[in-house]
Specification:
Layout: H1 3-19, H2 24-38, H3 44-47, H4 65-77, H5 81-87, H6 94-97, H7 105-115, H8 120-129, H9 140-156, E1 160-161, H10 162-176, E2 184-187, H11 189-193, E3 197-198, E4 200-206, H12 215-223, E5 230-234, E6 238-242, E7 248-254, H13 259-267, H14 270-282, E8 285-287, E9 292-294, E10 300-302, H15 306-312, H16 328-334, E11 348-349, H17 363-372, E12 377-380, H18 395-417, H19 421-432, E13 446-454, H20 465-468, E14 473-477, H21 486-497, E15 504-505, H22 523-533, E16 536-540, H23 550-558, E17 563-566, H24 578-587, H25 601-607
Parallel strand pairs: 4-7, 11-12, 12-13, 13-14, 14-15, 15-16, 16-17
Antiparallel strand pairs: 1-3, 2-4, 5-6, 6-7, 8-9, 9-10
Length: 612
C-alpha cells in the first residue's frame, strides 16, 4: 500500500470523526498525520517491515506511537479499527457532503440519522422533495442555498493544472492593470508555491489605487472584469468570482504598508503559517495577514515585505516553493537553506522533438530558439519506430537523422566562428546590453544527436545497439502497457536499464497531471539501480507531466540519482516549459549541483553513463 493510500485512510478517519463530533484535537491529529505521510519520499510500507527500525515511523513529524500503530494496521489490513467502527455507523459517501455550504459534521450526522441521507444525490433528492423542511434550522432559504451549493459543487470539483492557472492569472492581471494606480499583482496560494495543480486562484494587488481612501474604485474595476462568469462577493477590498471554466478567483486589493504580511499569509501553506505563528508567539509577537505585531504594545514590527517578517523572526527568507512545513523553518533558523536552482542555471535541454517524428519545427529552428533563450546545447530526441502514431524512426532513419543533426551543429559552429549567425548575434546583443553572460567564455552552440527510444513490453529497447552506439544521448521511455502490474512494469524498466546505451529514463512514472495516474513502477526499487548504473532520471518539465514530481525528485536525490530536467518540447514555444520544471525542482529542494544539464556540454557528456 503506497503513501497516498495510507494518507487517504487517515484523512477519511478524520472526516468520519468530525461527523461523529469527536474531539477537534483528535481530528487534527489524523489530518496532520495524513499530510505528513503524503510528504514522505520513502514508502512507509517499507518502514513497517519486520526488519525495519521500529522507531523509523516515530521520526516523522506528526507521527506518534498511536498513529504509528494505525499506519502498521493500514499496511497489514487495509484499514484501522477506528475507521471500521465509524463505518458501521456512517458511510464513506457522507464525507463529500462536508464540502457543501452549511453542511458541517453535526448537520451531516443529523441528516443521516433523521432521513438516512448519506450522499449528495440523496441529499439533493430529499431537498427537492421538501424533506429538509421538517428538520430544525432547515427552512426554505437553507434548502434553496443548499441546492445551489450542490449545483456549484458539481461544477467546481475539478482542479486546474498549474500552467492553466498561471495563464488565467496573467490574463486577469492584464485586465486589472488597465486601472491607473495599480503597481504590483502577485499570485499567492498554491500557485505561488508551485503546486502542480490548484483548486482556486488568489491574486494580491497593491499600488496607489489600493490605498484605503480610494480602494472602492479599484474594487468596482475588478468586479466588472469582462471574464467574470459569476460574481460571488464584493467587499471593501476583496472581490471573489468564478470564470466560465469554474475556476474561483479571489482578488485582494491591499495597501503597500501591509502587502508583505498579506503575501506571506495568503501564500501559505496552512501548516507553514501555523508553525510561523507559533514561532512569533514564543518571541512575544503575533503574526496575521495585516502585520507582525509586538504583543505588549501592539506596535508593528514588520509588514511591508516578507523578507522583513522572516528576518524579524530570526529566519532567513524562505522561498515560496519550500513553504510546506517540511523542515524549511529549521533550516532557515540554522542558515542552511539550499541555494535553489533557477532558470539561468540550465545550460542545455536534452529531450525535444522535430517534424522528423511528431514535432512542429526543424532541427535548425529548435536550435535557434534554444540559442535565443540562452542555452548552450540541446539534444534532438525524436521518437523510435514502436511509436508508429508519431512517425517514429527505424534504425536507418535514425542514423540519417543523426547525420542531419550533426550537420546543423557544425553549420552553427562555423557561422559563429566567422562572426555571424544566431549565436553571434545574441553574443553581440549581450555585449551591447552589458549582460553578465557576455563575460563568460563563449563556446560554439552544440546540437547533440539523440533518440527517445521506446521501452517495449518485455523491457527490450526499440532500436539496435549498433544504432544507439552512434548517438550522443539515448532517452528511454515507456509509452504503452500502462496496465502492467507493479512487478511487471518494474522488471520491464529494470531490464531496459541493463542496456548499456541508455543514458536517461524519460518521464519515469508515465503520469499525466489530472488525467492519468502513474503506472505502478516501484521507484524504491528502480532508483537505486539507476543510481548504481549511472542512468539519469528525467524531470519532464511539461506541466502536463511534471514527472518525476517533487516528492519523487527528493527521493531520487536521496538515492544518489543523476537528474536531468528537460522540456520534451514539440515546438519552439514549448522550450519555455522549463520554467514549470524549475518550480518543481525547487519544491524538491534541488540545487544546480543536483541537475546534470546545468553543466557545460563537455562536462555534461562526461557525466552521462559511460559507454561500454
Amino acid at each position: 500500500m503506497d503513501n497516498i493510500a495510507i494518507a487517504r485512510m487517515l484523512d477519511e478517519t478524520a472526516a468520519l470523526l468530525e461527523i461523529d463530533s469527536a474531539d477537534p484535537f483528535r481530528v487534527r491529529s489524523y489530518r496532520r498525520a495524513a499530510e505528513a505521510v503524503e510528504q514522505q519520499t520513502v514508502q512507509l510500507e517499507t518502514l513497517t517491515a519486520p526488519e525495519a527500525d521500529p522507531k523509523a515511523l516515530l521520526n516523522i513529524p506528526g507521527i506518534g506511537k498511536g498513529m504509528a500503530a494505525n499506519i502498521r494496521d493500514i499496511v497489514a489490513t487495509g484499514s484501522i479499527p477506528l475507521r471500521d467502527e465509524l463505518l458501521t455507523r456512517y458511510r464513506p459517501t457522507m464525507l463529500e457532503m462536508l464540502r457543501l455550504p452549511g453542511m458541517g459534521p453535526k448537520t451531516v450526522a443529523m441528516l443521516f440519522s433523521a432521513l438516512n441521507v448519506s450522499n449528495i444525490d440523496e441529499l439533493e433528492a430529499a431537498a427537492r422533495r421538501g424533506d429538509l423542511l421538517t428538520l430544525p434550522r432547515m427552512g426554505q432559504k437553507f434548502t434553496d442555498k443548499l441546492l445551489k451549493g450542490i449545483e456549484d459543487h458539481r461544477k467546481n470539483v475539478s482542479r486546474f493544472r498549474i500552467d492553466v492557472a498561471r495563464d488565467h492569472a496573467e490574463r486577469i492581471s492584464e485586465l486589472i492593470r488597465q486601472l491607473p494606480g495599480i503597481e504590483t499583482i502577485t499570485p499567492a496560494g498554491s500557485l505561488r508555491r508551485g503546486k502542480e495543480s490548484v483548486g482556486d486562484l488568489d491574486l494580491l494587488v497593491t499600488g496607489p489605487a489600493c490605498e484605503p481612501d480610494v480602494v472602492s474604485a479599484a474594487v468596482e474595476h475588478v468586479a466588472s472584469l469582462p471574464l467574470i462568469d459569476k460574481l460571488l462577493a464584493k467587499g471593501q477590498n476583496k472581490v471573489s468570482f468564478t470564470m466560465r471554466n469554474n475556476l474561483q478567483v479571489d482578488v485582494r486589493l491591499l495597501p503597500r504598508a501591509s502587502y508583505g504580511a498579506a503575501l506571506q499569509y495568503f501564500t501559505g501553506s496552512k501548516h507553514h503559517n501555523v508553525a510561523l505563528r507559533q514561532r512569533a508567539i514564543k518571541r512575544g509577537l503575533t503574526l496575521s495577514e495585516y502585520a507582525l505585531l509586538r504583543l505588549e504594545d501592539n506596535t508593528i514590527v514588520a509588514a511591508a515585505t516578507e523578507q522583513e517578517i522572516y528576518n524579524a523572526l530570526d529566519l532567513d527568507y524562505i522561498p515560496p516553493e519550500l513553504r510546506e512545513n517540511c523542515g524549511e523553518l529549521e533550516a532557515a533558523a540554522r542558515h542552511t537553506l539550499p541555494h535553489l536552482i533557477v532558470r539561468g542555471d540550465i545550460r542545455g535541454d536534452v529531450h525535444m522533438h522535430t517534424f522528423e517524428s511528431d514535432g512542429s519545427n526543424s532541427i535548425r529552428e529548435m536550435a535557434e530558439a534554444a540559442i535565443s533563450r540562452g542555452l548552450e546545447y540541446i539534444a534532438i530526441t525524436d521518437h523510435s519506430k514502436n511509436l508508429a502514431m508519431t512517425n517514429g524512426m527505424d534504425d536507418m532513419r535514425t542514423l540519417a537523422h543523426a547525420a542531419r543533426i550533426r550537420a546543423v551543429s557544425n553549420e552553427l559552429a562555423e557561422e559563429f566562428s566567422a562572426g555571424r549567425g544566431p549565436q553571434w548575434e545574441r553574443y553581440e546583443w549581450q555585449l551591447r546590453n552589458n549582460e553578465p553572460a557576455a563575460e563568460k567564455p563563449i563556446v560554439p552552440f552544440r546540437v547533440l544527436a539523440g533518440i527517445e527510444v521506446d521501452i517495449l513490453l518485455d523491457g527490450a529497447i526499440d532500436l539496435e545497439n549498433e544504432t544507439l552506439a552512434q548517438l550522443d544521448i539515448v532517452v528511454a521511455s515507456v509509452h504503452s502497457g500502462f496496465n502492467q502490474t507493479s512487478d511487471e512494469i518494474t522488471a520491464r524498466i529494470l531490464r531496459a536499464c541493463e542496456n548499456p546505451y541508455v543514458h536517461i529514463l524519460g518521464h519515469p512514472t508515465g503520469r499525466k497531471v489530472l488525467k492519468r495516474d502513474p503506472y505502478k513502477v516501484d521507484l524504491a526499487q528502480l532508483l537505486p539501480v539507476a543510481a548504481k548504473l549511472g542512468i539519469a532520471v528525467e524531470h519532464n518539465s511539461a506541466p502536463a507531466r511534471s514527472d518525476l514530481n517533487d516528492l519523487n525528485l527528493r527521493l531520487a536525490k536521496e538515492q544518489g540519482c543523476k537528474i536531468s530536467a528537460n522540456t520534451d518540447a514539440h515546438s519552439i514555444d514549448e522550450l519555455d516549459l522549463i520554467d514549470h520544471g524549475i518550480v518543481q525542482l525547487r519544491r524538491a529542494w534541488l540545487t544546480p549541483q543536483d541537475v546534470l544539464n546545468t553543466l557545460p556540454v563537455e562536462q555534461f557528456l562526461a557525466a552521462l553513463r559511460a559507454r561500454p
